[in-house]
Amino acid sequence: MMTKRIALITGATSGIGEATARLLAGNNFKLILCGRREDRLQSLKRELEASTEVTTLSFDVRDQQAIATAVASLPAAWKAIDILVNNAGNAHGLDPIQNGSVDDWDAMIDINVKGLLYVSKAVIPVMTERKSGHIINLGSIAGKEVYPNGNVYCASKFAVDALTRGMRIDLNPFDIKVTSINPGLVETEFSLVRFKGDKERADLTYKGMTPLSGKDIADIILYVLQAPAHVQLADITVLPSAQASSTVVKRS
Ligand code: NDP
Ligand code: 8X3
């Protein structure tokens, strides 16, 4: 039987990360599930252990020391991480730049950009040492096009796009693949977080159209990971059929 690859997934407690964990569990991967909500990590671990080996690391991606300590604490059998899915992230607020909240700006830059860097910093040495690995960064259509009131969230995802390209160049000598996946509207807890728990407003985001699901993105991640060794999917943008761009969405 083929050896199972070890995948570390950030933001595994919800949405795209959780769906990816569920799909990879049944497809010959061992999982390191990460997130802040320990109760969700533990219940997902219990569920997925029926299919594969699972361990968890609970940290805030804003805390570089906590990440370094958590990754260093992995038992020997878990240290050789093959795949890093940099998925943790969210939008906070949707306001014109002149009204934006500094707390929201800090959250998006600290989580989506610096958090992705901190987790990468902890994991990349394992990959460069073994001259093997695959990093998948969750970008967004918001990292390809700016939309009204998206300002800082878009900037954070443009940064993810630049970091993905930079990683692909710098890690090329080490045979490490780097992929970005850039979804449009995916119905997860994303809008609930963006609108600070206002479910009515969150639901309006997907009104009159069929959004993507976390499972749709997980399917793409699995496809990317199952490509032959010589194939590197570099940059994938995926939209619901009803969405043509950040701002053009056909609704009934
Ligand atoms: P969810 O809100 O459903 O999931 C976000 C995940 O990120 C949660 O598991 C959460 O875990 C984790 N997370 C958030 N903040 C932190 C933090 N400070 N430290 C550690 N983990 C954190 O959203 P999605 O699944 O939709 O989002 C996943 C990624 O996909 C994000 O990067 C998002 O920008 C991107 N994306 C989403 C789209 C969408 O329309 N939904 C479209 C394009 C891209 P916990 O709270 O337990 O820490
Ligand atoms: C999430 C997609 O269009 O809401 O990154 O910014 S969008």
Automatic annotation (TrEMBL):
MF term (GO), any: oxidoreductase activity, acting on the CH-OH group of donors, NAD or NADP as acceptor
InterPro entries: NAD(P)-bd_dom_sf, Sc_DH/Rdtase_CS, SDR_fam
Family: Belongs to the short-chain dehydrogenases/reductases (SDR) family.
UniProt keyword annotations, A-Z: Oxidoreductase
Pfam family, one: adh_short
Descriptive protein name: NADP-dependent 3-hydroxy acid dehydrogenase YdfG
